[in-house]
Structures
1.
Amino acid sequence: MTLQVEVLGMATSVLDQIVEQRIASVGYLSLPFKNYYSFASTHAITSRLNVNSASWDRLWLVYRPTTYTNKSAPVIVNGYKKSGAFVSPATIAATNGSAGAVTTDIGLPQYGAGGVFNTNSEKYISNYFNFKEIKTTPSAPAFYQLQVNSANIPAYRMTTAEAYAMSVGAIQHYDKEHKISLDQYKNNYFVQCYRFCLDGAEGNRLASGLISSPQQVQVGA
């Protein structure tokens, strides 16, 4: 991979004066780039990661099984059409072994024939991008909380539904017309987003995010 960057060098202090005038006139200096850091680990109750930033805007967390890199068939998104549905009156006779034609539809939505949340269609995602909530035991509820610089974010342990609501509010350009069920969120789109910057700050490229030193972030679930 290569990168070509234009660099403008000045032997005088003209550039420094321009920067000072910009800060004096509007109060801030635009940052024309963003840094992205990614961490991957096997999560067991808590996970640690290191972030050193003077303006940390958001933290995205995704959960998926350890077998996400295995080759497999596409995953059917919960609620969408999964298998053919019998639509012929001869269904009972055919099931009992009697002769008769059986007609099946191309598929029946898992949430019901009405296709709530626009599920009256087929939808698949790859095993690699199927994010799923994985709990220690199926019956035990899960709770989520961050610890950044020895401070808990938020101040209480969130349930899965609360983490979903927080993530929706943390996204600046969330499409409110695109709705998913809590079941789909838990089994196919289990992503959490924590916002550390001021609301709307990204449009102005302000350095308004959280200041974090290394080795101070702990994710608990």
2.
Amino acid sequence: MKSTVTRRALWGAGLSILLSAAGGAAVLLGLPQHFEADAATETAAALPPAVPVSVAKAQSRRITTWEDFSGRLEAIERVEIRPRVGGAILQAHFREGALVKKGDLLLTIDPEPYAAAVDRAAAEVAAAEARVALARTELDRGRKLVTTSAIPQSGVDQRLSAFDEAQASVRSAKAALRTAELDLEYTEVKAPISGRVGRLEVTAGNLVAAGSASPVLTTLVSVDPIYASFSASEEVVTTALARLQASAGGNAIERIPVQIGTAADEGTPISGHIQLINNEVDAATGTIRVRAALENADGRLIPGQFVRIRIGEPEPEEKLVISDRAIGSDQDKKFVFVVGSDNKVEYRQVKLGPNSDGLRIVESGLKTGENIVVNGLQRVRPGVLVAPQQVEETTASIATK
């Protein structure tokens, strides 16, 4: 019984081996072709399809890079209006906070006492001139008499001295008259500069004294042009000066462009130029005080106002720029996806510079003319096969979409 079971098991195993061999032979003979087609279909299905993406070429352009700062506006001239003569204030002729021109009448101080002083000084001048006329007549008469020995020479000398003294008295009287006339003019307080006048500190009817110790009547600040002062980093200033020195313009700091914007402005629409770079670095902060000059013909810029400031390079330089939407972030690193000639994506870490007119400057990691993914960045990974579609628009236009 046991031997019969053993023979049956051996016979079954042999039959299985024979059937397997027959199947393999059938495949080698090419009989069941559908088995090979099914395998190819499975392989094709395992490969992912090419991912459609938009690509654009990295461009090189001549652009001006800018550095951003914040600062305050300053008036070029600021004057405290004080009375130059004492008296009672009769009237104020300006509206507080208004723009005035040089020579405009601001206040009037009672002129009557000074008008009387002018009349008195004028009378003194007339009296002195009369004495000069008399002294000249006496001198002429003496010179005639001395020729006939009617009077001695000493008499002529005395008359000459009296004539000279009378002439000096005229000059003194005229100087006193001029002083009186100036005092009368000073009763009309006029704007010494063009600008914006402040509040009236002393109202009409009050008595004021003359001199620097007298109270301030009002203040006046110039408007056009106006300064924008700010502190720039030592690196930015020295780099700008080095590039300026290397250019044809030499040390003309006026060639360094400046743009500013106020809280009411979109961006920095107001243009100007550097007027001053201070002569030393602040050791505590590592910054240099810089001042820009700006036109302000309409007077909308006000001293003390906070402004955003950008300073640019003296000359444009060739820079590689790309759209911001082509840039990805990997923790603290920035990267782009470069599409090679085989349409496969390559991860490329880049070092970025500042933004310029909607484009991002690439300092290293990318070459001009390389195709980068600008749309569909989130759908691709390094090594993925893509179906690139070249974007006809420029990189700048892509950045603004």
